[in-house]
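Supplementary Methods, section 5.1.

A reviewer requested that the exact input to the structure prediction be made available. We therefore reproduce it here, unchanged from the version used in the analyses.
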Amino acid sequence: MTESQRPSGEYPMYPSYGNGDAAYPPPPSYQPVQPVAMGPGTTVWPAPGTADAYTGGAGHGGDGVHGLPQPAPEPSAPRRRVRRPVALLAAVAIAAAIVGGGTATVIGQLTDNGTGGTAGSVIPGTTVSQSSKGTVSGVAAALSPTIVEIGATSTAGQSTGSGVVITSDGEIVTNNHVIAGASSIKVTLSTGKTYTADVVGTDPDKDLALIKLQGASGLKTATLGDSSRVAVGDQVVAIGSPEGLTGTVTSGIVSALDRDVTVAKDDANADSSQGQGQGQGQGQGGGQQWPFEFGGQQFNGDTGDSTTTYKALQTDASLNPGNSGGALINMDGEIIGINSAMYSASSSSGSNSSSAGSVGLGFAIPVNTLKADLDTLRAGDSS
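The structure derived from this sequence is encoded token-by-token as follows.
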């Protein structure tokens, strides 16, 4: 053969397949995959499908064999951008729900004036702190400021009872028999401050009354619970002013539900043999409790001819003269009943005063009865 006289390198040289022949067709215009030197004496060939500066990895034109360019894989940042709006929307929705719920609560409180709602709903007021829930001391500390002592003066004498504050401007619920026939009513708060009160409305059939303090504002209000949720055995706290001892706290359980209790409609029909007012005692000297009938028997005197019967909660919490109109409270700090009648051993048996006091037989008007009657009481109607 005749040797070429062209200088070396004048024409491009093609790589060999190992047998000395030139490769055909010509190689692509870009650099093929090259081995990678990992260290002295070590060379590694990239696996098929591995992308480098000139190849795009597996796929059309980037399968590691043809080595055609392949678009770089989509970065993860766009995926994060997709998730962020979703999370943001969820957060906004949660925030909106919280704000909406809070707004609904505020609107409900403003509309109801703290006392509206159906018999089965809870009317908000003072609550027990989370750390003190379920304790007698926690309930007492939270609710005592919402329970007042009521002193009623009538032609029959002076009686002492209790009441529950339900609005910040001084609406107070009590028993009808505590204020029936009263010519003047004085109310003493747990702080010792005294107000004069007027009767707003009475309902002798349910033994309930609503009075209003003159010139009061900023008072703590009680939470009216749901007596339909009460179960036998539930622990309860009673707060009232037995024998004029303001803010006395006792505790016990719910002994029974739906007891038929019969009471006199007003003090004119109650036994006045002892010459005292027919409220819940006269000052510190004790006295006759409000007479009532239960189980076909009369307790604490003769109820007279004009009576009313209601379904009551029975409790063994210690109740004494002066507790009537006070609160029976569950361990969440919700009022579940208005204490109304209790058995007195001394007045029914004629024994001396040393045997007087609670014997674990007390009754309370369910709070749902009160809530259903509020509109009637506020209207000044009586039945």
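The two ends are 136 Å apart (CA to CA). These observations are discussed further in the main text.
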